[in-house]
Design a protein that fits this description.
- Helix content is 1%, strand content 50%.
- The chain is built from 1 helix and 47 strands.
- Strands 9, 10, 11, 14, 15, 18 and 19 form a 7-stranded antiparallel sheet that branches. Strands 6-5-2-42-40-39 form a 6-stranded antiparallel sheet, with no helix packed on it.
- The longest helix is centred in the C-terminal third of the chain and has 4 residues, at 423-426.
- Mean pLDDT is 90; it is low at 1-19 and 537-541.
């Protein structure tokens, strides 16, 4: 953790105004199920002690049951044995900052949906996970079973006669013991328009894609739900919610429909409150949530059908194309502001996916993958648009976190990102996250990928105010090879400048600097750490001492005493006098 040095040192922010050095690869390990597919990284969480939680799902079958980490056996998954498919196993791996395994909590019964849910660390050093789970095929008469870090089982009491999904909220201690688990239920009763294979039973009626935990430990979950939902209260009386925009839904899970829901629970997993939209639309989704500076920022979208909607006191006017939605609220879900950005198709395409939201150095950033145009609801002259409809592109949007005002936007092809291959300008591109640049607060990094082995997973550096690319340097292709690698998740430790990431591929990966990984069994997940440079906030300007006879001492720019300084910039203290010196 960052040392508290305020009693000794005076601090000032130092903006160096120079381009950061290239990210440096520190370590890399594969998390790998033994199947040809099925491995997905869902989220990365950091605790206050610098440890890392890697949450995801890893595929196994009865014939290939092992999941490994760094080439070593991690656990044996559920014995899936139904045709050519696989079972997805819940996996929460905790490592230290150097990538050493500390423990793993996993499932060996149950099929956990990939790319669903999230993990978030809590103030007591533990972690919350939210997952979407059904029974392993052929194991309907067996409880869902998780396994604690010490190898003891934790059973979720649930058997059934047909497979369907429920949502699990699970609290795990810092030592890897499951403290409690709460289940959220969704009706499987078909609606009036049910047809085809979904005429008699609805097995999948919700999406859960993100969430967070606030400073008090309250839990917030991003949902789209398409059938009545039941959640547990502390007093034992259930809360039941019914969506509004599902009357014409046939049960086809590929159809976008249903309602936005931001659902809140207390630190013990009991229902607190919720935030929904009112009004009619074709579909509305809550997808990602971030808690920062005492506020909750949620991202989603609305596909409209000509009607105006509302959230709190704010009107929303979506177009009939997937229109991005951002809402700011407090911990009690009172809405401070809301913006819906009307969209239109590009070359008759209308995709929007993998949208991320983050608060970085006082700016609220949205990024994602799209082939639409969307604009500021307060000023249509402000917009960001894909350059073509065929391959999806990346975008970055900066908003004022206090008001939601549109500040700047950029498409991934607005700048000359063309190294080492011209495919960087034309290939399918995704921007997954905006990250702080620890070495320069005036710049940000965008974490994303181009679906091409020569470009792969990258960090792109932008000016934080204008979102103009930092060229000619500023592009770092940090993971290449891997077949066609794609990025998954990223997190930056603000105290150390360490960036942790996951990427997905089916061949040998190469990291920036030349390190090459083994080949995964099928599709595997690369877990890696890069150092982005020394954090440049809270830099020491002076180190005062009232003793004039104090011997000469040297300190680095973070206030740490250096016994034998070598080359670099230091603070030299001699009694009450301090000066910066370059050695």
């Amino acid at each position: 953790m960052k040392k508290q040095l305020l009693s000794l040192f005076s601090f000032a922010t130092l903006a160096l105004g120079v381009s950061a050095a290239a990210p440096e690869a520190v370590w890399d390990n594969l998390i790998d199920g033994s199947t040809a597919a099925g491995d997905q990284s869902t989220s990365i969480s950091l605790d206050a002690d610098g440890n890392v939680y890697w949450y995801g799902t890893y595929g196994t079958t009865a014939a290939a049951p092992d999941v490994t980490y760094a080439g070593e056996f991690l656990f044996k998954g559920a014995p899936y044995d139904a045709g050519t498919s696989y079972g997805s196993n819940y996996t929460l791996l905790k490592t230290d900052a150097q990538g050493n395994k500390l423990w793993c909590v996993y499932s060996n019964s149950g099929d956990f949906a990939s790319n669903s849910g999230f993990s978030a660390t809590t103030s007591d050093g533990g972690v919350i996970t939210v997952s979407k789970v059904r029974h392993t095929d052929g194991m309907l008469d067996t409880n869902i079973r998780l396994v604690n870090a010490d190898g003891t089982p934790f059973e979720i009491d649930w058997t059934c006669d047909r497979r369907y999904y429920r949502m699990a909220i699970t609290k795990i201690s810092a030592g890897g013991q499951i403290e409690w688990n709460r289940m959220v239920d969704f009706s499987t009763q078909p609606g009036p328009a049910a047809s085809g294979n979904s005429a008699e039973f609805w097995a999948e009626t919700f999406n859960v894609s993100g969430g967070t935990v606030d400073d008090e430990g309250n839990i917030y979950i991003a949902l789209n739900y398409r059938n009545p939902m039941t959640v547990a209260r502390k007093d034992g009386e259930p809360a039941v919610f019914t969506p509004s925009n599902t009357g014409s839904w046939t049960g086809d899970t590929q159809t976008a429909c249903g309602d936005y829901m931001l659902l809140s629970f207390d630190k013990d997993g009991w229902y607190r409150n919720n935030l929904q939209l009112t009004g009619q639309c074709a579909a509305s989704y809550c997808q990602e949530i971030v808690w920062a500076d005492g506020k909750l920022y949620s991202q989603g979208y609305i596909t409209g059908d000509g009607h105006t909607m509302k959230v709190g006191a704010f009107d929303l006017a979506p177009s009939d194309v997937m229109s991005p939605l951002v809402i700011c609220a407090d911990a009690d879900l009172n809405v401070s502001w809301a913006k819906c950005f009307p969209a239109e198709k590009v070359q008759n395409k209308s995709g929007l996916q993998n949208v991320g939201i983050s608060l970085v150095n006082g700016g609220l950033y949205l990024c994602g993958q799209y082939n639409i145009k969307f604009s500021d609801p307060d000023d249509p002259a402000k917009f960001v648009a894909a350059t073509q409809g065929s391959d999806r592109e990346g975008f970055v949007l900066k908003l004022d976190p206090a008001t939601g005002a549109w500040l700047a936007a950029r498409d991934s092809r607005d700048d000359d990102w063309d190294r080492p291959s011209a495919v960087a300008k034309t290939g399918l591109t995704g921007y997954f996250d905006v990250l702080a640049n620890p070495a320069d607060a005036k710049k940000i990094y965008v974490f994303g990928y181009v679906m091409n082995a020569n470009v792969g997973v990258f960090l792109r550096e932008y000016d934080a105010e204008t979102i103009v690319a930092c060229l000619p340097e500023g592009q770092y292709n940090i993971v290449t090879g891997g077949g066609v690698p794609s990025c998954q998740c990223a997190a930056v430790d603000p105290d150390t400048g360490a960036m942790y990431l996951t990427a997905r591929g089916n061949n040998t990966f190469t990291l920036l600097g030349g390190d090459t990984t083994p080949k995964p069994a099928g599709w595997g997940i690369l877990a890696a750490r890069f150092d982005l440079g020394q954090p440049q906030t809270n830099i020491v300007e002076t180190i005062a001492s009232p003793d004039p006879d104090q011997p000469v001492e040297y300190y680095d720019l973070l206030g740490r005493k250096v016994a034998n300084p070598t080359h670099g910039l230091y603070i030299r203290r001699h009694g009450p006098t301090t000066t910066k010196v370059l050695l």
